């Protein structure tokens, strides 16, 4: 699975794996792909520095990258004022806080212990937090910086390029992709409707060739609904120079979900058991459908808040749901490919399956093409 982009980065397979878990990112790189660590869960720069140090020591000298979240549009304060987390928290209406309390009470979700901090915070959606993450990242040998919500600010792109770091951005339409090209982005990730997390409304099969044509000659990675070798082959046939995979790593043995109940739900889920909902962050994000997403999507409720208000509003609630494994409410961002995730496997086994399936798909197409040439 070699492409011009994979050769440029010095990786064996054009498989880019996004994950919030350092052990998974390292294993992807060691397996010949390109591990990309998600930074959004890091609230303290020292924690990110610790895990990047660990990656440096456990990737076997193979390249890896970092994914940050710097929203193009967020809640803004008065002119020239930098909003703190407390400022943003103060904007959350009491009606929404009451809705969270009532939903948790209806499902008998226990409180956190006194003095126990929420372990799930979305402060990484705030630009100033993302910038502190970048200060840490640029002290490490990352080869790729990806932004999940639009093009990073121009000064961030310039700083990355000064350090010979490629910059990638996700796009849900050809229009978004053209904006990335104009902003100096090096790689566009075509994020299809099927993907886990934040997605647009265009399916990968349609979106990928549209973006390839829109940003030519920039390399494009296909994302969404890809979890097998034949699907990788289809993406490359559509003009992509690699694939961007996130969901398939959630049920690997290296993943640190720390929730047997959530792992069981993922392994049992079908491809129709996800929903695009604003319940988690305020922007449409594909995730497991649960009683929590149903409550927020119910027209009788108060509706979700814009990013980052929604993420801050539900942070403690999500921590409580996860800690006590309240199964009706328990979920996670994941794509429609979850229907293929039926067993726990190592990262290496997933990569081996991808490469083997890719080779079989290419052989099949070659046989078809050969017969067509003889007819």
TrEMBL record:
Record protein name field: NAD(P)H-dependent flavin oxidoreductase
Alphabetical keyword list: Flavoprotein, FMN, Oxidoreductase
EC number: 1.13.12.-
Organism encoding this protein: Streptomyces cinerochromogenes
Molecular-function annotations in GO: oxidoreductase activity
Secretion signal span: none
Domain of life the protein comes from: Bacteria
EC class: oxidoreductase
Parts forming coiled coils: none
Pfam families on file: NMO (PF03060)
Entries under InterPro entries matching the protein: Aldolase_TIM, NMO
Keyword 4Fe-4S included in the entry's annotation: no
